[in-house]
Amino acid sequence: MPASETDKSCRRILIGICGGVAAYKMAEVVSTLAQSGHQVTVAMTRNAKRFIGVTTFRSLSGREVFMNPWKHSESPESPHIALARESDLMLISPCTMDMLSKLVSGRADDAVSLLAASIDRASCPVLLAPSMNATMLQQPATQRNMATLEEDGFTLLASGHGWQACRTDGAGRMPEPADLIASIETSLR
After folding, report:
1. How far apart are CA 78 and CA 36, in angstroms?
2. Which residues are catalytic?
3. Is 3.40.50.1950 the CATH number for 3-188?
């Protein structure tokens, strides 16, 4: 039974982390949500591990990090199906250009995209926080993908503007942790 049916203050939240420099900011998001009493499960792409370690999220969430959809599970159903069914909300952040493309095309070849594909967005919102270089963000393909994902029922969070890892100032920054948490809390109401 989803946590939302038993206790409105404790929700089951999936956090999908992709391979972008801003992945380090997700440690604060996971920690804050867990300290607020939410059950947080982190899923990571292989490239996310290039920027921040699995141990960090296991420690902050108190739960195993979902990375291998084929790993044995206690549940009789596939682990990604069980996680998707039990969740109240999913946030993918940083949501890279590659992840946007995967979600549009229906490609589910890593833990994060597989979970997103398994969620019924009518009962479990999926928030996307695009994060990339300003040039990548403005690419016609990226703009088309974001428009398509909104039409498909995903919630896109506005990217910030400011200093980026590529040493430029522009659009495409991942929203700050406090803004991500506020968006999650608003979506859970």
Report:
1. 29
2. 166
3. yes
